[in-house]
Amino acid sequence: MGISLMLCLVEGFEEGFGKGNGKEEHGCFLAITELKSIGNGEFEDESGDVLFSVAFHCRTFLPVNGEIMLGVVHKIHRRGVFLRCGPMKYIYLSAQKMPNFYYAQRKAQEIFISDDHSKIENDVVIRFVVFAVRWRKKHWDIERDFMILASLEGDCLGLVSLPGSDELEL
Questions:
Q1: What does the mean pLDDT of the chain come to?
Q2: Does the pLDDT value for residue 103 go beyond 90?
Q3: What's the pLDDT band for 54 if we cut at 50, 70, 90?
């Protein structure tokens, strides 16, 4: 196999690798760490494609119940918020699983506010515990992805303050 064909195969493999979100038993694929071998190509009569068997090592991300994770709020609704964490796009934190937080709408902005005036709003980082995980092959417009239910019930969960000072400079 020539070097240019090898480079083309590796490039195509890495490009196609990111399209599938993962597998139920392995989790989401993050990156290829080692390409072990590329087999001989086999011609497919029906499609005209040439298929190559590929052996590789990769990094994956598989969420499990009870795991503590960080997520960024990207959508707020009256009944809860949606978070993102790395390749996980479907993380739901129900209002029922946010003790001491209450829904409020200020002007055009929806937020959850706590007794101590902490606010959950878009782009805020939250530390949460994974309450439930479900793998979906096909559900509405979601194909091959994990759906996660989150909770703030527990110690050290909630809003995360990012590095830097919130003090006023005088």
A1: 83
A2: yes
A3: confident
The rounded distance, in Å, linking the Cα atoms of 52 and 151 is: 44
Q: Identify the pLDDT of residue 122.
A: 93
* Nearest Cα residue to 60 out of 20, 94, 100: 20
- Each domain of the chain, given as residue ranges in start order, spans 3-61, 68-159
Residue 95 · residue 104 · CB < 8 Å: no
8-state DSSP, 72? E
Task: Count Cβ atoms within 10 A of the Cβ of residue 38 and give its class: 0-12 exposed, 13-18 middle, 19 or more buried.
Answer: middle
Q: 68-159 — its CATH code?
A: 2.40.50.140
Q: Whole-angstrom Cα distance, residue 146 to residue 135?
A: 5
Q: In this model, does residue 17 exceed pLDDT 70?
A: no
Look-up of token digits 């990012």: 162
118-137 in b/e form (b: 16+ CB < 10 A) is eebeeebebbbbbbebebee
